[in-house]
Amino acid sequence: SIGSSGINAEYGKCINKIGNSTVFMTKHSLLGLGVTVPEEICLKWYEMVQTELPMCALSALFGPIPLTIAEKRFLLSHQIPWGLACGRASAFFMNIHFEREFETDIHVMRRRYKISAAPQESV
User: Fold this and answer.
1) Which residues, including other chains, have CB under 8 Å from residue 80's CB and lie 6 or more apart?
2) Are 120 and 74 in contact, with CB atoms under 8 Å apart?
3) Model confidence over 82-111: pLDDT tens digits?
4) For 26-41, what is each residue's pLDDT tens digit?
5) Extended strands (E) in the chain
6) Residue 95, exposed/middle/buried by CB under 10 A (0-12, 13-18, 19+)?
7) In this structure, are residues 81 and 116 in contact, taking their beta carbons and an 8 Å threshold?
8) Is 17 left (phi over 0), alpha (psi -120 to 50) or beta?
9) How far is CA 96 from the centre of its chain?
């Protein structure tokens, strides 16, 4: 039988997973990014500037290796410059309480946190 501390631990893990996925999806939406590999790499450039974490730098630098030439060209000409500029200009995203912003219009949030949407590749 699971004691009350075991139930609390499982509940805490569940809440943590929900919170992490909420921040993940909210950050992608706020930045105007989907969840494709090139858009994830674009996000890593933004996160690298924001957090200065080595894992973001490694992902940003080595993630593009399997991309097609066209994807690499768009990444180099549009997404990386956007990620660097937006990462420097915007508020530190780790300080944004996303769960408090669910009812806020995305355009209002972008203005408030000085975020511009990522460039989109034309199909």
Assistant:
1) 42, 45
2) no
3) 999 999 999 999 888 888 888 899 999 999
4) 788 899 998 899 999 9
5) none
6) exposed
7) no
8) alpha
9) 12
